[in-house]
Amino acid sequence: xxxxxxxxxxxxxxxxxxxxxxxxxxxxxxxxxxxxxxxxxxxxxxxxxxxxxxxxxxxxxxxxxxxxxxxxxxxxxxxxxxxxxxxxxxxxxxxxxxxxxxxxxxxxxxxxx
Amino acid sequence: xxxxxxxxxxxxxxxxxxxxxxxxxxxxxxxxxxxxxxxxxxxxxxxxxxxxxxxxxxxxxxxxxxxxxxxxxxxxxxxxxxxxxxxxxxxxxxxxxxxxxxxxxxxxxxxxxxx
Lengths: 113, 115
Hints:
By secondary structure, chain A is an all-beta fold. Chain A is 0% helix and 59% strand. In chain A, the strands form two sheets. In chain A, strands 2, 4, 5, 9, 10 and 11 form a six-stranded mixed sheet that branches. Chain A has a five-stranded antiparallel sheet with strand order 1-3-8-7-6, with no helix packed on it.
């Protein structure tokens, strides 16, 4: 059974810092890995999707990397802003698990002015 | 496009009551999903559908039922509500591309409390 772990569970940084969120997964047989953002009381917004054949994806100040063989992904946020404060969820679509996304518990990020 | 919409936003049920959570998408997606999110936990798949008339169980289907009569709608039914079903419920949809390029789009969620 695919297990997805996110470290740290919570993170507080001052505005302007670069930061890294970590995600690990136990089964490397995946189709893709997605990073989502969740604001309090809101739904999930897809940030980046990395296919299993890719090493990284970039969108603006966000960069996500994937090392499938070691079961790891990182989300790099450059020059953090208070508006980046949210919970960030990592989800893996396993090639052995049909259509389900397996989610981590998330990292709660607070960027202080 | 409204994307994925869910109603109601909030609901309080008494133990044993029934209700239907509504989900509609206007992106002509083939695949639709229901997840639940318990406090401090990741999302878990309840049911999914790969097209009208086709549904299948996810990781936590007990206590729920679904139907898919149209491409747009995927309602989730709770027949006999229990306190363990207190959660936030998210509906999602995707095109259903084969392989790795399929992105799921999520609705805003329904916050359900069973007392």
